[in-house]
Specification:
The chain has 270 residues and is mostly beta strands. The chain has one helix and 22 strands. Bound molecules: 6-O-phosphono-beta-D-tagatofuranose.
Amino acid sequence: MHTDSIDVSTCTGSILEHGAQVMTWAPRGEAPVLFTSRAGEAASNTAIRGGIPVCFPWFGPGRHPGAPFNHGFARTTTWRRIGATGDEVRTVAYRLDRKVATDDYWPYAYEAVLTASFGSRLTVALQVTNQDERAFSFEAALHTYLAIEDIAQVRVEGLDGVSYVDKTADGAVRHQEGPVTFSGETDRVYASAGPVFVVDPVGGREIAVSTSGASGVVVWNPWEEKGSRFADLGPGDWQRFVCVEAGCVLDGAVHLEPGRTHTLSTTVSL
Ligand code: TA6
């Protein structure tokens, strides 16, 4: 699985050709900021848990029942590396496109470019262009797995008063009161583009996540019962990550006329 490794004065990091998935990022002198599973190397044709999976052109199984892969085909496809620039901040770009509509679950001609800028902060951007003759809608999410020490002691600030879709309660709409804390499976799509701040008292740090082009922020942790069932999570891994995802999902899906472009991005910093 081809990997671009980054080692510059400001940080280290890595990104895979598979799914154009950022796997690691650590500012110089800091512990890794993105979670990677202890379960080891994934097969080359599967979705890899950890880092920043690129969910496109759908999010979750709802819109395309029976479609392969939970979050679209982009994360399980090999993208083409189209360039790398910069020294202090290393920017790598990958492309995935389809010029001819097909007959699968999302049959449109499009171009997607994923750009990752590795520096003292990490910025990942997904740019989607409609290259079809027809308008289309798509969902996208930058499914960021943040490394934390103990999910039971983590809180996410910045969403107080924001409404959210609770995917653990059949999509019930609720309102956040105070910080987001975790005591069970948590799977929420917040109607806010952030920024949000993940406070990790055991790890002794705060991770900021900001977005652009997003309709919402998804916050997820599977908790013990579901997390222990994932074959690609090691023992106790469920306690060591929280997902804070920049997304254009559910009612926030993007509608693109032919020739138009939309960019979704997320920036992670300490
Ligand atoms: O982003 C939250 C979520 O949609 C959860 O509902 C759960 O399905 C999770 O993503 C799965 O993440 P994965 O990396 O396994 O695709």
